[in-house]
Amino acid sequence: MLARARGFVVLVYCAISMAFFFFVSLPVMLLTGSGDLPIWFARFAWSPSCLWLTGSRVHLEPLPPLPDGPLIFASNHESALDIWVLFKVLPRSVRFIAKAELFRLPVFGAYMRLGGHVPVDRSNHAQAVQSLRQAGEVVRAGTSLIVFPEGTRSLDCRVHPFKKGPFVVAMEAGVPVVPVAISGSGKVTPKRIIAIWPGPIRVAVGEPVSPADFPDRTALLTEVRRRVIALHRRIGGEGGDEAAAVATVGMEGV
């Protein structure tokens, strides 16, 4: 009962604080056409405060040297908390590629769209392809992206097969992919339940992987996923099946 009560408290706080930061940012976003201010709030106020309220501590391993310019951060996905975790620990102003359903939510959807995040409709092939092109334009314009190549949260906290979409973007934009592993968030807040059991969340960021070193997107995907699995095991996660690298359904999904 305590876990469920904490989960609902965090959910309510998340919604209210997000609406507050959205409306505070809205005049600036409308005047400048930029989503940088809400991203700043997300990195330095919204995410840290939400994570503090969960009672969980985020432990970040030392970061490797990251090159200047845009990057694509490819992370495994254990929990809804992962968005807050990545906003908090990554040293870049980033945007997400996210499923289109999130952009239909009241307030949150407007926040995502005006903030410059990229929606992907995985049920529509043509729109999914167009979304990948849009993501490529965002990256080429100098913005770093966060992607969850598994396409959805893991039920067992293992790293599942990756979809090809993010690696299409990386190959076309010629932008390095940075592997990221998160372990522990799935135990704090499992999928399909509103409840929180406070515990440690560990994050490791790997060396950037250059698309130029690989013949195609499948080879790039396989190597990035192999590194995510290795990082996941290093920080206490179970990793995943390295042989089952590519998701067989929804190739353009992200």
Low-confidence stretches: 250-254
Biggest β-sheet: strands ordered side by side in the sheet: 1-7-6-2-5-3-4
- CATH domain topology: Glycerol-3-phosphate (1)-acyltransferase
Distance between the termini: 34 Å
Rg from Cα = 17 Å
The beta-strand count equals 7
Please render the helix and strand layout as text.
Blueprint: H1 2-32, H2 36-54, E1 58-60, E2 72-75, H3 82-89, E3 94-99, H4 108-114, E4 118-120, H5 125-140, E5 144-147, H6 165-173, E6 177-183, H7 185-188, E7 201-205, H8 217-234
Parallel strand pairs: 1-7, 2-5, 2-6, 3-4, 3-5
Antiparallel strand pairs: 6-7
Helix pairs in contact: 1-2, 2-3, 5-6, 6-8
How would you summarize what this structure contains?
This protein is α/β, with parallel strands linked by helices and 254 residues long. The chain is built from eight helices and seven strands, in the order ααββαβαβαβαβαβα.
